Amino acid sequence: MFRETLPFAKAAEFVEWACRRIRPASLAVQMEDGWRHCSTRRLPGGAELTSIRALYPTPLGGPRTLDLREGQQAGVKLLALDRHVMFMSRIVKIGQCYRKDQPIPIIELAVPAEVVCVNKRRFFRVTIPKEKPLPIRLWDTSMRNSLNEAEAPRIFIGSVLDLSIGGGQVGRLDGVPDWDVGTHIGLRMEPMDFGSILLIAEVRRCLDKGEQGRSYGLSFIGAETLQKTIAAQDKLANVVNRYQRWLLENRVASVPRVGSA
After folding, report:
1. Protein fold of 126-253
2. Residue range 111-119: mean pLDDT, rounded
3. From CA 152, how far away is CA 138, in angstroms rounded?
């Protein structure tokens, strides 16, 4: 079972687990010009989950300001145990909390009627062979809140190690980025014949591979708009299919025929 829609009462365990600690979360809010993808950190709730509290979200692309209002629709994506938990909600309160006597802006989201639970590894994943590399450029979006590469203080160049339309693993970077689990990064892939693929991703794993250096497992969040996200997913599906076809063709070509010397 890869995906299921559940009443909140049946999925409350996953949502409550996700809200027990301060962890990154993805948010999409509906603005007048379309949906905006944002990053936030969910805040621990009380014993009874009557609302979901999070830091005031930071846009991952486009204008740096985000003027939210109560009653606004929002799509939420949380990581809980071995699943992604996604649901539509609305902002019920915009306020602040205090840390070390410093006010911090927060939002509160309504508990949804139902949620969608998806197993994390739900897409076919293809290994990218060294004989046919897929270069990638990556940068920390928190350094600029924009996908305009001219503003980036540092862009890391590396290779995609494996890929699906939901995420991938990157490595062989030309430097050592200061990324932890939960960091949101921008990335650009330019596979042959498909044009560039520009996406926002979240670091889910940091793996030390000895002499091969460090690699990072990424989960794709989306692009700046819903339309760009759909277009990027279509390109990713074509890239995955092409690499799979190339691997199958080379596997068949390498197998000796019966009766051959």
Report:
1. Thrombin, subunit H (2.40.10)
2. 78
3. 10
